[in-house]
Every structure is written in C-alpha cells, then in structure tokens.
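pinging the channel bc i need a second pair of eyes. not urgent but kinda urgent?? the chain im working w is below, pasted from the shared doc
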Amino acid sequence: MHKLKAITPLGGTEPRVDGFAGLVISERPDRALASVGARQGSEDAAAQAARDLLGFDLPAPARWSAAGDYMAWWMGPDLWMVDAPHSSHEMLASQVKAAVGDNASVVEQTDGWCRFDVEGNRSLDLFERLTNANLRSATEGTALRTSIEHVGCFVLCLEAGKRFAVIGPRSSAASLHHALLALAKSVT
C-alpha cells in the first residue's frame, strides 16, 4: 500500500510562516478552491443557485464576498473562484456542482493555486514595491488581478492596510514566496 503524504505548495509537510518586523507571511494550504463559470443563457439561474449555497451574492468585478465557511472572488465575466476550509470542504467542487447543476461549469482548483497571507503594518510598503496594484486605496472586500514577478495573481484585501491574501499558480509558489521574502527584507 502506498503511504502518500500531502505537501504544501512550497514542498513542506507544514505550512511555512516567515516573520519580519511589522510583517508576517504565511503559507495557507488549508483552503479548498473551485471555479464557477456561468453558462451562456443561465447566468441568472447560476447566480441564484450559488447564492442559495453560499449565503451571499456572487461578487462584482474587483470584489470578494464571504459568509460562514465560504468566500468567493470575481475572476472575470461570469467567472468566480469559491473558497472554503479544506478540512470541512475537501469535495468543494462536487458540492458547488451539485448546487448549480447545468447552469454553470465547475472545476476543481485546490491543487492548482497557492495562497500566502501577508499581515502587518508594513504590508502596504511591501506591496507598493511588489505590484502596480493600488492597494493603499483598497478596502476590505477588494479583489485585484495583478502581476507579481511576471506571474498572474489575485490580491484580496482582507483588512484595509493590514491583511492581504496573495493567490497565484501553485507552479509559481516558490517564485512568489521568494519575491515576498526579498521585499519583506527590504521594507523592514
């Protein structure tokens, strides 16, 4: 019998946490992800089915929303990413697909993405060197698509000026982490 053991996007057996003066960068492999794309002609039905499952309306462009265990952010026209704790929603894509039925296409995304939470009073100093996204004016609920180290990412403002989630392709986790650490050292 195989004795497989899950690893984090950075290749560890435990999530990595790096601390600096006024800044903490945490690897977050504890999230399940599923993309939801409304099918043409079924946009309203998909939105209603998602609302019934999630407990909130799917967010508008450049926004995220959350209630209970669920979070979702806008990724493009009629396309969202749904997020929930992996421990209680390991089969998130199946749960979402059962809710939306043929009104939307749902794709398992958990192992395709990585997430780093950046927290502290030096967060904005880091981001102004990392990306051209204007995070100084971001409010809680802002979800921006941007480039970090030539990698397409999403940056979610979890608490204005203090707490952010950086979500990028898992295949670029090491590059994103390196960029975060290098800039964290330069701002602290």
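so Residues 173-187 form the longest helix (15 residues). and DSSP finds four helices and eleven strands in the chain. — does that match what u expected or am i reading it wrong
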